[in-house]
Structures are given as C-alpha cells and as structure tokens.
Amino acid sequence: MSGLYLSRGLYPSEYLRSTVDYILSCQQADGSIPWFEGSYADPWDHVESAMALSISGEYQAAERAYQWLQDCQLQDGSWWAAYQNGKVQNDERRETNFVAYIATGVWHHYLITRKRDFLAHFWPTVSAAIEFVLTQQTSYGEINWAVDRDGNSKEDALVTGCSSIYKSLECAYNIATQLGIDKEDWLEARQRLGTALRQHPERFDRTWESKARYSMDWFYPVLTGAIPKNQAAAHLQKRWRTFVEPGLGCRCVSDEPWVTVAESCELVMALLAAGEHAKAVTLYSWLHQWRDDDGSFWTGYQFSLDILWPEERPTWTAAAIILAADALTEHTAAARLFTRVSLLEEPLPRVVPVSADSAQ
User: Fold this and answer.
1) Is the overall model pTM greater than 0.90, yes or no?
2) What CATH number is associated with residue 28?
3) Among 54, 74, 248, 286, fewest CB within 10 Å belongs to which?
4) Are residues 221 and 211 in contact, defined by beta-carbon separation less than 8 angstroms?
5) Do 57 and 357 touch, CB atoms closer than 8 A?
6) d(Cα 226, Cα 219) in Å, to the nearest integer?
7) What would the pLDDT profile of 218-251 be if each residue is shown by its tens digit?
8) Alpha carbon distance 263, 286 (integer Å)
9) How far from the centroid of its chain's Cα atoms is residue 335's Cα?
C-alpha cells in the first residue's frame, strides 16, 4: 500500500493492527523486545517499541516491557548496550541516551493511561537512570555519549544522542512534578544541555569525524525541542534537499542513496514540531510502499541498486510508523509528546484514561 494520507481524528487502527501484532510476536517472555526474532534488544529501541504498544492499547505488553528494564537495571542506574536471551549481549559500553530514554517511555505511557501507580512504581528506575546520565554532563553542558565496561567516561558527545537526552530530561522532570518531587536540578541540567546544543557545536564530535552527514543530527534537535519552534522550519529547510528523496523518504546519511523508514517517521514528527504539517503528511504517505505483507516494515530502500536493504524488519521501525501515525492524527493523549515542549508547573489533573478496547 502507498499513499496513506493521515489527518487529525483518522488514526488507521485496522491498517496498523498487523504492525502491532508484529511487534507483539517479537516480544520475549521476559518482556524484552528485540530488533526482530533471534536478534538482541537495546534499551532505546526497546522503549520505542513499548511506546508503540501503549499507543495501540496493548498496555499490559507495554508494562511488561518497562518491567524488563527495571528488572535488569544495573546498580548505578544504567543498562548495557544490548541484551539477548536473558543475558548481556554487549557489555562494552553503557550509552547515556539509551539509559535516559526510559523517562520518555514511562511518561508517554502515563499520558495515555493516567495510571499513577505505574508512574510511582517506575519512579525509582527513572530517577536512578537520570542520575547516572547526569554524572556524564560536563561543565560545558553536553553529556558524554557513553561509559566503558569499567565505568570510565567516553569523553565526547553526539548531537543526536544529546538531543534525545534533552527530551528525556523534559519527561523525567514532568514525572517528578506529577509525583510532587522537586527536581529543579534536572531542569537546570536540561537548560545547560540545550545551550550546548544550540550554541556550542564545538563540544560535539571532538574526537571523531563529524556526524553531520547523518540526517538525525539535522532533525533531532527539532524533534526533541532543543531548537525552538520559531526557528525550526528554517532549520529543516536548510538541508531538506540534501536528505529528502521525493517519493521515497529521508536518507539516513547524505552521501548514500539509501532512505530509511524510521528516520523518515521521526522527520515527520520533527516537521509537525516545526509547524510544517503538509510536508509531514506527504512524507508519511510515501513510506507504506516499504510495508511487508505481515504488517512489518523494512529498514530501508537502496534506490541506486533498487533493493530493500538491509533485509531486516526491525520492531523499532514498525514502532516509528505507529508513533508518527499517532502524532499526525492526535489519536492518544501522548500524540504531541514529540511535537511540542511541555514542562509541567503543577501535576496534571486526574482524568479518565483511554481504554484499551477503544484504542484498538
């Protein structure tokens, strides 16, 4: 299928049901969600898939996913880079943006379900994760991208990773506010990180080749609110022709003829954050040609060779499709999480949550 045009109130539940079922089919008995059957799970992409389950009304499955993270959290609040079959698959490093992302997922699930007991249950996990991440913030504001297996800092920073952390700090602060816990220091850390992202590009990619060829470095500061809305459209326009291939999607990197579905979906949400609704709708409409018969989505398309590449259908790509659909249609109470910045000044009022039945 191609040319799926979405607008507010027209969430394609029936069309996406098989996509949800694909993610569920990959979820393991322990709650982890690997990239695909037989692969490994990493904390960031695992949370991405859990958020898609929340949108789809699969609340128990989503909560099992977060429980898995709580169960395997390390004593210092972090997680290893990857896990497989109940064991650590990659113990070479612990990445700060991976660790922080649980705050985004937990807040996202709360916005949809309004289950305060869920929020309270995962507060210690979120708090420990954020405290670990902030141990890696430098005096300039950026956050080191990882620590090695011995806990030594890998002293450089990534624009995309720090942008993701910027959103996670917003969500973590909101969780604390909702629970009546004072975390002004987290807000201050977020402000310093935002300043680094906006004003100090020299603090990123100091020890390796610039990552500016990656599209995520271009749009993630918009997607996560580091670049304010009044500057976002102009920022995206500057490199639009570099990264966007008409009729196909967004390139992963500027110098390769390869569009990827997940990056395209994230760009859809960045466009919504920038107020570029028409462009977002159009871009999303191109992506369904990469859908497989079982509802999963291929990673990407190499248009010079005319092949789907790699031959993988990740759960997190399917999840990105669902997240973008929610953002376009405003289907759930979490639909605007990635399209606007919202820092709570006081707890949200109690409301009746969307039921699982009505979300499917």
Assistant:
1) yes
2) 1.50.10.10
3) 74
4) no
5) yes
6) 10
7) 999 999 999 999 999 999 999 999 999 999 999 9
8) 13
9) 13
